[in-house]
Each structure stands twice: as structure tokens, then as C-alpha cells.
Task: inverse folding
């Protein structure tokens, strides 16, 4: 269904965010679950594909399908794990799936027929926890070290950017890399970075604990001693006592340092967002759930809203928001959501509640005070009473009881089960914690962040390996699980790297962190990354499987995910990605089939 997008205001800041939200509220907004959702889908499917034939195998169409995919291996992920040969699309929905001859007979003179050549088709992948909005804003002005095998290659990428950049323009690597991905197994040095970009200030961030800057970068930000750094930051020094260019600090210090960099213009943010979403399409991603987070102010959603208004999004974006100011979280959230009820938006852009930082006091705090927990409870109860979904960042099982106690306190007043609340990360979750989550209907957003983790670090923090994370245990319990990456500061956004990691449990250093009992099957992993993720967006009845009546979101793969060696899964790409029946990415034998940006 194509809905006309409203005109958004040209303001910036919170006012722009609220105005955009107010106009979004006038568009189609729906969050149906259970029997209501099934009834809605049945009616909508009938409108699109007409009455089913008496034989029941293939629907009879009121109109011929727009696109027919034939001669393929369609992994439907329906309840019976059906693998079909062909698929028909009418409008933005899947109209029919079945045998090749049956589906081919539905085509008429105006139908586009795509021969898949035996290739595998999967439902469009959905990253349930990715900072896509923030990544997109700066994607056009940053350098990526994702997949770079050596420091020499990383410096080449810096050099190429410096050659194309204007003098004194910043060159930024915001994350998505680890020293252990390099053959040299070390961090780059300031001198290497300065040699690659002698005329530009350069900033390179390593996760949320360190950043490397060239002399020009330090000078541009007025940094010469520790006094010039955000609170908690410290200039690292070598054996000779001289600064190395590396700045160390905890999460708040590094995020505050990054915030000093010049931000993108609106035009740069829109261009970067287009390019980033297109990059995600290249990997078969058709949907993301963005959890908000650091370095993303309310006014910075404007680039995304503009593209949505122009109908130029190529990935479905479901997003959360968080309060920007410590100590005034509930006032901020009341203001930001005054005209933004839960579910505001449409199939392409929709508000999905609050998180992943709900209060500053509980964020990354493994030992919160009772006062901090009480503050969190007040906001959580406020959100629950308004029917809002909530997602919360929490890393370690040994302290998650603080969060679970608050959730259980809220659950006694407002049942959480219908709200799709979730805990993100929690890589070493115990069975007891997972059971407490299941009892409340709280889901688990699981990412492959530990793929980049140093094995020694994992042992120090978790005490043992073998169930990091315990995917098998969660599946056996029937806990809702969403797949994702937490890209792009701390991880590569490639979903096939994440799927491979889910199956083999190996870090980038090839250290096994998860034994066979905690590793899913290929189909289970794929369901987690499709139907599982869709659950957290209240969309499991409309996305995540290739069945009639669902949105036509799919990817045609370069290799068969279900049969290639597990070690080769990370190299899979999408040769054709379709979102809502529109081909948004095409490569190889399908090159030239893209239908442009607008819907």
C-alpha cells in the first residue's frame, strides 16, 4: 500500500521532531496483534489477490501480478518450512507462492518475469538493533574500516578519502573495526594516520573506549593536555612519556569527544542516509529497528523524515527515541511524544517507543542506587500506561537483576506482555534471567558484538565460554529473539557475518564461545533474523516470511544460505533486494532491474 507522505516542516531541533511526529500521526498508524492482526491480513490479502480458487493452490487475481519470480528456491519460512519454486507480487504484497508452472500461468502481458536461475530467495532480513539513523547521517562523510584486513589497507582508505576531501575537512572513522581484524594484530599509530592524511584532521574511534587523533585533529579541537578533554578522558602516553595520539576513557568521555566533531549538514545527512540504506539493501536488509542512543539529538532525525516524506526510503525503519538531558528524562520524553503516540507512522517509518537509554542513571550502571531504580520505574510505568514499547541496553547477567526487578515491579501494575519490551545485548544471560524475561513477555535483542571480542576479555568478564550468548537456551524456552549487529560503532552491519557467527560461535580470532547446544540450526538463525526481529516491531504477521498477504520484502542470494559451508556464509550478498514489491538493489545477472528511489 502506497500512502501519500505529508509535507514536513523545515525547522531543526526538537521543534522539528515534534512537528514531523504530529504530521506522521495523521498517516496510517496501526499495531494489531493476535486475532485482530490475522483478520486484518486476511481482508487485506483478499483485496490484493482476489478470491482464492476452489482448488486452493493458487489464488485467482482481480489483477495480474506486477512481478513474478520463477525458477528459484523460495525459502518461505512459513509454519511448515515450505520451499517453493516461484512467487508472485501484486502491488506491495506477496500474492502467491507455489510451483513454477502454477505461478507462471498468472503472468499477463504487463507482468515483469524474473528468472532466478535456481537461486535461493529468503525473506528480507531485519536488523532488530542497529544505529542506522546515526550511521546514515554521517555515512557519506566517514571512512569505513569494516572488513579491512590490514593496517596498510585501512591507511589506503584514509589516503583515498584525503585525496578526495577538501583541505582541512575532517576524516572520521566512527567504529565498526577492531585491531584483531588486522593481520598486524595491533592498533594503528598516529604517525601512520598522519602520513595517510597529512593535510586533514583525522579522528578514529575504537568502540566506546578510545579514539586516535592526528596532530591536526587535536589542534582543530583545541586539545593539548588532559584538561582539554571531556571529563574522564585521558591522553595515552608512550614509554618515553610523549602523547601517542590515543585518547582513553569510558563511554561518556568518548561519546562527548565525538560530539565535538562538526556535524553534517542536512543535505549531507540526507545523502548519507540514502547511501547507507542502499548499502544495507546490498546485504539483503529490508528493515531495521533503531534503538536511539548517543550522539543522536532529536533534531537529527530530520534527514530521515525528509527522505520519508519524499518516499525515498529503501529500508523500513522502526525507531525508538531517548531523552537527551540527564535528570529531566521524563519531562523530555513527555515533550517529545506529546504528538507521537505509539505506532505513529506507516509501513516505511514508524515510532516504536523509548530506549535504549531510558534514564542516564541506569545506563551502563551495574550497581544502581534505589533512587536511580525508582526514577527508572517512574518512566517505565509512564511508558507502559501509554502502551509504549521499551528497549533497554544491558550487557551483563550478574547485574541484570536490577533491571528485571524494575520490570517486574511495573508488570504488576501494567502487564508488559502486549507491549513487546526487550533487553538488548545481555550476552551471558543465565537461564534464570531468560525465564524471568519470558514470564513477563519481555524479548531478547541478541547481536554478534562478541564476534569482535577478545577471548581473554570474555573470560575475564564472563568467567567461562560455551554459552555466549545462549541462543539455544532461549530458543528452547520459546523466548522472543531478534537478530542484529549493534552496528556501526561496535560492529560490522553485514547480517551474513552475524548469521555465520550465530551458527559457528567463532570470534574474529576463531575462538569458540558457544558450544553445539547453544548454536541454532540454519533455519532457526534465519527465522531469528526475519520473523523474530519482526516481532519487536509488532510486524510478525506482516513481515519475515514469504507467504500470500505479507509485504513483498525479499532477497535473492549470491549463494544458497541453506547449503554452502558455514564458513562461506559471511561472503553471501544479495543480488536482488525487493522492499514492498519494489526492486531497490540489483547486481550480477539482475543488474539494471532497480526501480529507482521513489515509491
Result:
Amino acid at each position: 500500500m502506497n500512502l501519500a507522505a505529508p509535507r514536513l516542516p523545515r525547522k531543526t531541533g526538537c521543534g522539528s521532531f515534534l512537528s514531523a511526529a504530529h504530521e506522521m500521526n495523521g498517516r496510517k498508524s496501526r499495531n494489531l496483534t493476535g486475532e485482530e492482526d490475522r483478520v486484518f491480513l486476511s481482508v487485506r490479502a483478499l483485496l490484493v489477490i482476489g478470491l482464492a480458487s476452489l482448488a486452493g493452490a493458487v489464488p485467482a487475481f482481480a489483477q495480474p501480478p506486477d512481478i513474478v519470480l520463477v525458477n528459484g528456491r523460495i525459502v518461505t519460512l512459513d509454519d511448515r518450512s515450505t520451499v517453493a519454486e516461484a512467487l508472485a507480487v501484486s502491488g506491495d504484497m506477496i500474492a502467491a507462492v507455489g510451483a513454477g508452472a502454477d505461478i507462471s500461468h498468472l503472468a499477463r502481458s504487463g507482468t515483469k518475469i524474473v528468472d532466478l536461475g535456481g537461486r535461493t530467495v529468503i525473506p528480507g532480513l531485519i536488523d532488530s538493533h542497529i544505529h542506522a539513523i546515526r550511521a546514515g547521517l554521517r555515512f557519506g562523510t566517514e571512512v569505513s574500516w569494516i572488513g579491512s584486513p590490514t593496517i596498510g589497507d585501512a591507511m589506503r582508505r584514509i589516503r583515498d578519502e584525503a585525496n578526495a576531501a577538501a583541505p582541512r575537512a575532517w576524516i572520521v572513522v566512527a567504529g565498526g573495526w577492531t585491531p584483531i581484524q588486522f593481520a598486524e594484530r595491533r592498533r594503528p599509530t598516529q604517525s601512520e594516520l598522519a602520513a595517510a592524511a597529512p593535510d586533514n584532521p583525522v579522528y578514529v574511534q575504537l568502540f566506546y573506549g578510545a579514539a586516535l587523533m592526528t596532530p591536526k585533529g587535536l589542534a582543530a579541537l583545541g586539545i593539548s593536555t588532559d584538561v582539554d578533554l571531556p571529563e574522564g578522558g585521558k591522553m595515552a602516553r608512550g614509554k618515553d612519556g610523549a602523547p601517542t595520539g590515543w585518547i582513553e576513557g569510558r563511554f561518556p568521555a568518548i561519546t562527548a569527544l565525538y560530539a565535538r566533531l562538526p556535524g553534517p549538514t542536512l543535505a549531507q545527512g540526507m545523502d548519507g542516509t540514502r547511501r547507507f540504506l542502499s548499502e544495507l539493501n546490498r546485504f539483503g536488509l529490508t528493515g531495521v529497528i533503531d534503538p536511539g542512543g548517543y550522539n543522536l539529538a532529536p533534531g537529527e532525525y530530520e534527514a530521515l523524515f525528509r527522505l520519508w516524506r519524499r518516499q525515498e526510503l529503501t529500508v523500513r525503519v522502526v525507531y525508538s527515541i531517548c531523552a537527551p538531558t540527564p535528570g529531566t528524562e521524563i519531562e523530555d520524553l513527555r515533550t517529545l511524544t506529546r504528538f507521537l503516540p505509539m505506532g505513529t507512522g506507516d509501513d516505511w517509518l514508524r515510532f516504536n517507543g523509548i530506549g535504549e537509554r531510558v534514564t542516564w542513571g541506569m545506563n551502563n550502571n551495574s550497581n544502581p542506587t534505589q533512587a536511580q531504580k525508582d526514577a527508572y520505574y517512574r518512566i517505565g510505568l509512564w511508558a507502559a500506561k501509554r502502551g509504549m514499547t521499551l528497549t533497554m541496553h544491558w550487557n551483563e547477567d550478574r547485574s541484570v537483576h536490577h533491571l528485571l526487578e524494575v520490570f517486574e515491579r511495573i508488570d504488576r501494575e501494567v502487564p508488559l506482555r502486549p507491549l513487546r519490551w526487550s533487553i538488548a545485548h545481555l550476552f551471558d544471560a543465565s537461564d534464570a534471567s531468560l525465564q524471568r524475561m519470558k514470564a513477563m513477555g519481555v524479548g531478547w535483542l541478541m547481536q554478534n558484538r562478541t564476534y569482535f571480542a577478545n577471548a581473554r576479555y570474555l573470560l575475564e568478564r564472563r568467567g567461562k565460554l560455551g554459552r555466549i550468548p545462549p541462543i539455544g537456551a532461549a530458543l528452547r524456552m520459546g523466548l522472543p529473539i531478534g537478530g542484529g549487529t549493534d552496528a556501526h560503532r561496535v560492529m560490522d552491519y553485514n547480517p551474513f557475518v552475524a548469521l555465520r557467527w550465530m551458527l559457528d560461535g567463532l570470534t574474529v580470532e576463531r575462538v569458540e564461545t558457544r558450544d553445539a547446544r547453544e548454536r541454532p540450526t540454519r533455519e532457526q538463525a534465519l527465522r531469528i533474523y526475519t520473523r523474530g526481529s519482526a516481532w519487536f516491531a509488532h510486524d510478525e504477521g506482516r513481515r519475515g516470511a514469504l507467504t500470500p498477504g505479507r509485504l513483498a520484502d525479499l532477497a535473492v542470494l549470491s549463494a544458497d544460505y541453506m547449503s554452502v559451508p558455514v564458513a562461506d556464509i559471511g561472503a553471501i550478498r544479495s543480488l536482488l533486494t525487493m522492499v514492498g514489491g519494489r526492486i531497490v538493489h540489483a547486481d550480477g545477472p539482475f543488474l539494471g532491474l532497480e526501480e529507482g528511489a521513489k515509491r
Q: What stands out?
A: Residues 266-282 form the longest helix (17 residues).
